């Protein structure tokens, strides 16, 4: 009897299916992705995008892209553009549903006046420090502001004057009247409007008061009639306030549902901390290939389908946890292994002279592009008397019986080429090996070997006469600690990995890569996965290492 596998649904899918069954909102599913345009998207946003867009698509719904742009101090149009580019790259589309909280500023202002008119909001002259003190602490009740009982008419007048620019920044705020003794600190008369006389990236100088995130976010959901407002777990304590606004403004009842955010070891997801890395010059930009931003990972060579697969493998949870970075790397490797051509590239070259190969002779070797893809085809690689191999592939004396690379008296095969027998080597005055002398077996050509000679080791190589030069950037993890922001009293920058970038100024590559362009990806045989960087030009090729070939996660899973 064939076993029927049960499809397991995450808790959000269960909620959605129950709502559909009950014909809630006419069985309509409408989600949104609401980034603040104050930085680049990172790995945490990747999970949120995948959830909001993916679930809406699964249930025949729609997803809005809405920028919650309520803070002119930190927001820029450049961030808006980068966010849209990243979402498209991930493979999701908001179609014509691109919105901005700033579109709703007039409506949000009217919402605030409605709360004032109902006696539920008041203008407060207290300073930020005084308001913080009034709120108390989780184990200490708050105390009411001396301005809490202003009349409705006075509050309406003062709020209008705030909008008209009568008062200076910080002189007054608008707060809602809730419960200063609530165990939930977010319910202790939160501020919903503040004065900021700064130019907004979209509305210019039209407004000098701006709604706080908690006020603009939920009401924007209602304005757009979002049925399922999906957000990360840190907003759980904001949900009572979210629902309070809906009830007291009598607006569309969007439902906030929280899920565990994406936390990956050795990565951080605080935009403030990521900005600090940029500002202090520890990375080149938000798009630095070491950064956990989507732009950085794209430049590093992480395929979008691999990131989507990573989200699927880690699932949708209710509790925060830290995901091993090895899982992400394993998923990326599996994706690249299927799609990248194998090529010859020598990063730390050592010249090998094949003494019995005729001087001036050249021939063409045939190489399969990708053995994982039967339709990948083949290419031609030139071969000549002098080739480069990796310095690490030669030893003056074989260290043990399991050493199968090049050493005097040993045979080794050149991948797609001949078997060589190592005869001798030369050193310079500093004692460094400068060249190796070998002979070759003429009948040992790869694909037509009739020599009967055995060689246990196989090396990659590049013809010295035909090699092209390239700069290769070797990237490693940005931090030396898996949770750099989790140590109380310790600056996360203390864990910055000073060796996270090493630059090889002159590597030698097979000539087929001469036409490689920005974004092209390859597997450098026995070395790792690499991508052509945008810094490349007609005079210089630049490659970024995406990952090494070693898959510790995959090996661990096989053992278990």
Short précis:
The chain is an alpha/beta fold and 560 residues long. It is 26% helix and 23% strand.
CATH topology of the largest domain: Rossmann fold
- Provide the low-confidence segments as ranges: none
CATH superfamily of the largest domain: HUPs
Query: What is the distance, rounded to the nearest whole angstrom, between the alpha carbons of the first and last residues?
Result: 28 Å
Strand order of the largest sheet: 12-25-26-27-23-24-13
Output the structural class. alpha/beta
Oligomer: single chain
How many DSSP H or I helices?
A: 13
Radius of gyration, in angstroms, nearest whole number: 31 Å
Look at the structure and give the mean pLDDT: 95
Q: Per the principal axes of the C-alpha atoms, what is the gross shape?
A: elongated
Largest sheet, strands/sense/barrel: 7 strands, mixed
Q: What is the tally of beta strands?
A: 27
β-sheet strand percentage: 15-25%
Helicity range:
25-40%
């Amino acid at each position: 009897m064939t076993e029927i596998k049960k499809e397991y649904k995450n808790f959000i899918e269960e909620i959605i299916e129950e709502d559909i069954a009950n014909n809630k909102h006419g069985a309509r599913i409408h989600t949104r992705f609401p980034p603040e345009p104050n930085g680049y998207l990172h790995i945490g946003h990747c999970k949120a995008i995948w959830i909001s867009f993916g679930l809406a698509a699964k249930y025949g719904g729609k997803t809005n892209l809405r920028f919650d742009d309520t803070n002119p101090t930190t927001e820029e149009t450049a961030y808006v553009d980068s966010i849209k580019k990243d979402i498209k790259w991930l493979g999701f589309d908001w179609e014509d549903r691109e919105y901005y909280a700033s579109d709703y500023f007039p409506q949000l202002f009217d919402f605030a006046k409605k709360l004032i008119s109902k006696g539920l909001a008041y203008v407060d002259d207290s300073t930020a420090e005084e308001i913080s003190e009034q709120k108390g602490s989780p184990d200490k009740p708050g105390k009411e502001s001396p301005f809490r009982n202003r009349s409705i008419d006075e509050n309406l007048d003062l709020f209008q004057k705030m909008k008209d620019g009568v008062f200076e920044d910080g002189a007054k705020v608008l707060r809602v009247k809730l419960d200063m003794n609530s165990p939930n600190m977010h319910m202790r008369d939160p501020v919903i409007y503040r004065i900021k006389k700064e130019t907004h990236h979209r509305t210019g100088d039209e407004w000098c008061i701006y709604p706080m995130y908690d006020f603009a976010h939920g009401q924007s959901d209602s304005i757009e009639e979002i049925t399922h407002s999906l957000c990360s777990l840190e907003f759980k304590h904001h949900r009572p306030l979210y629902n309070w606004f809906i009830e007291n403004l009598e607006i569309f009842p969007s439902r906030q549902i929280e899920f565990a955010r994406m936390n990956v070891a050795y990565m951080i997801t605080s935009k403030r901390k990521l900005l600090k890395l940029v500002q202090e010059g520890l990375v080149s930009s938000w798009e630095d290939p070491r950064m956990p931003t989507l732009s950085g990972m794209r430049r590093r060579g992480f395929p979008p389908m691999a990131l989507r697969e990573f989200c699927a493998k880690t699932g949708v949870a209710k509790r925060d946890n830290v995901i091993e970075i090895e899982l992400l790397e394993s998923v990326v490797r599996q994706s690249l292994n299927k799609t990248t051509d194998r090529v010859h590239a020598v990063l730390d070259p050592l010249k090998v002279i094949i003494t019995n190969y005729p001087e001036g002779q050249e021939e063409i070797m045939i190489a399969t592009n990708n053995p994982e893809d039967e339709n990948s085809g083949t290419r031609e690689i030139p071969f000549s008397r002098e080739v480069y191999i990796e310095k690490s592939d030669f030893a003056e004396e074989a260290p043990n019986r399991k050493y199968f690379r090049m050493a005097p008296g040993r045979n080794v095969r050149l991948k797609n080429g001949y078997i060589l027998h190592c005869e001798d080597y030369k050193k310079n005055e500093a004692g460094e090996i400068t060249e190796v002398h070998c002979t070759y077996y003429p009948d040992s050509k790869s694909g037509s070997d009739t020599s009967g000679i055995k060689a246990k080791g196989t090396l990659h190589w590049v013809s010295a006469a035909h090699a092209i030069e390239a700069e290769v950037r070797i990237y490693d993890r940005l931090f030396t600690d898996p949770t750099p922001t989790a140590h109380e009293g310790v600056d996360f920058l203390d864990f910055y990995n000073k060796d996270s970038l090493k630059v090889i100024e002159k590597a030698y590559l097979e000539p087929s890569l001469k036409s490689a362009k920005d974004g092209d990806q390859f597997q450098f045989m026995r070395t790792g996965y690499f991508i052509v960087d945008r810094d490349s030009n007609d005079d210089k090729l630049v490659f970024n290492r995406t990952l090494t070939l070693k898959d510790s996660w995959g090996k661990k899973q096989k053992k278990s």
